[in-house]
Design goal:
36% of the residues lie in helices and 15% in strands. The chain has 8 helices and 8 strands, in the order ββααβαααβαββββαα.
Length: 222
């Protein structure tokens, strides 16, 4: 349709803030709420040979700065607008100015305390829970860090992106059958049953991040 490629999300993810509460309490550090708060904390952690784990998406920052990816008629991207430029400057400064690691094993380094704070997909909660039981109760998951708006409010909104999608090939000779299957597959009851069956066979490590976990009004796919 309109020379585009479309898909129905099967799994999706979004970023959250993870903190080792015990380490922050020992160092008497406040819980950050904004990106500026994080940048104030970074040098303190680095002096203790600790680091910040960062996997925040460019899209999260663009939207917090009031921008979008595309113009209103979806004919071109808006990366030349001020919101995108400022978002890109902030994103790159994490690595160029503050030395955040570009690659890292977050769960391992969060577990041993080398990275006591990080922005990671919400599914990391499950990974930490089953792979690092020795730190249960010593860490927490919090909303994505935000940007202070002109009215003083903190905008910590993020973008929910699909990890996998289901598609129908253009040259299929079973269009109606394929569409009926996708309608069945994306149904909330089907997704819930599938997720429970996987977990019952493979355990909590295989917990399924279905794409219909949120009401429609909270889903934003770009």
């Amino acid at each position: 349709m309109n020379d585009g490629v479309y898909g129905i999300p099967s799994t999706e993810s979004f970023e959250m803030l993870f903190i080792r509460k015990d380490i922050f309490a020992e160092m008497e550090l406040p819980l950050p709420r904004t990106w500026d708060d994080l940048l104030d904390l970074a040098p303190i952690l680095q002096r203790k040979n600790m680091q910040v784990g960062m996997s925040v998406k460019f899209s999260d920052l663009v939207f917090q700065y009031g921008g979008t990816y595309y113009n209103e008629d979806l004919t071109q991207v808006t990366f030349n607008e001020n919101s995108s430029v400022e978002a890109f400057k902030l994103l790159t400064s994490f690595f160029t100015d503050y030395g955040f690691p570009k690659t890292f094993d977050f769960v391992t380094r969060f577990r041993n305390g080398e990275i006591p704070i990080g922005i990671m997909p919400y599914t990391t909660y499950n990974t930490i829970s089953y792979s690092a039981p020795e730190i249960n109760g010593l860490w927490g998951m919090y909303p994505l860090l935000g940007t202070v708006r002109e009215d003083g409010a903190i905008d910590n909104s993020g973008v929910v992106n699909p990890d996998t999608v289901s598609v129908i090939f253009e040259n299929t000779n079973k269009l109606e059958e394929a569409w009926k299957f996708l309608q069945w597959w994306s149904d909330s009851e089907t997704q819930a049953a599938y997720g429970l069956q996987i977990e019952s066979q493979l355990g909590v490590a295989s917990r399924y991040s279905t794409a219909n976990i949120l009401p429609d009004e909270f889903n934003l796919i770009i």
